[in-house]
């Protein structure tokens, strides 16, 4: 069974990944969460959802996972957390899939990855706390960017982000043009 790792932190935007994590479970992929705290301290999301992470970052081995997911939120307090940045670099250098949405790519920037790839994010030069970690030359004004093993998206593009992460994990065929139609188009049934 494939395993995917989801980073959760205070202020993470749960709505940006809710459909994705529902689909991962439906596709038989095991999702595990981790935080920089010990796993007995609740994480409080942007919507005030309280969760306990499965693991503390100190107990994570990237070899156990196919992919790393980083939701948006306000990751500014984490930009200098070397354990986290090292883990992100480890996923990247080992060609494991990384998905980061909205403000999540700021952590990729802090890890030095955005110097090597094109990306998008829901961040601008007016977000001064992220100025030093984002490579503005490589930022694309697109809703979604895939470069090497990294998928980035703006926060409002969470459906397409989920779709591309699922494709990268091999759970959706390339010819399936509307795999998440159920979530995008209302139906009576």
From TrEMBL:
Q: Which Pfam families match?
A: DJ-1_PfpI (PF01965)
Q: Which InterPro entries match?
A: Class_I_gatase-like, DJ-1/PfpI, Prot/Nucl_acid_deglycase
Ranges for domain DJ-1/PfpI = 2-167
Keywords annotated in UniProt: Glutamine amidotransferase
Cellular component per GO, a single term: cytoplasm
Q: Does the keyword Nuclease apply?
A: no
Q: What is this protein called?
A: Glutamine amidotransferase
Its organism's taxonomic lineage begins at: Bacteria, Bacillati, Bacillota, Bacilli, Bacillales
């Amino acid at each position: 069974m494939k395993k995917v790792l989801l980073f959760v932190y205070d202020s993470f935007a749960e709505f940006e990944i809710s459909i994705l994590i529902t689909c991962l479970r439906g596709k038989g992929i095991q999702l595990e969460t981790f935080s920089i705290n010990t796993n007995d301290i609740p994480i409080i999301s942007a919507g005030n959802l309280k969760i306990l992470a499965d693991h503390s970052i100190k107990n994570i081995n990237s070899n156990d996972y196919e992919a790393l997911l980083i939701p948006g939120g306000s990751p500014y307090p984490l930009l200098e957390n070397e354990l986290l940045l090292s883990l992100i670099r480890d996923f990247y250098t080992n060609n494991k899939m990384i998905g980061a949405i909205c403000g999540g790519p700021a952590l990729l920037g802090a890890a030095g990855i955005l110097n090597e790839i094109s990306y998008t994010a829901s961040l601008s030069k007016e977000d001064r706390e992220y100025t030093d970690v984002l490579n503005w030359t490589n930022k694309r004004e697109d809703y979604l960017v895939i470069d090497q093993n990294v998928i980035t998206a703006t926060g409002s593009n969470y459906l397409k982000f989920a779709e591309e992460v699922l494709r990268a994990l091999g759970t959706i065929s390339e010819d399936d043009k509307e795999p998440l139609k159920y979530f995008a188009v209302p139906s009576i049934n």
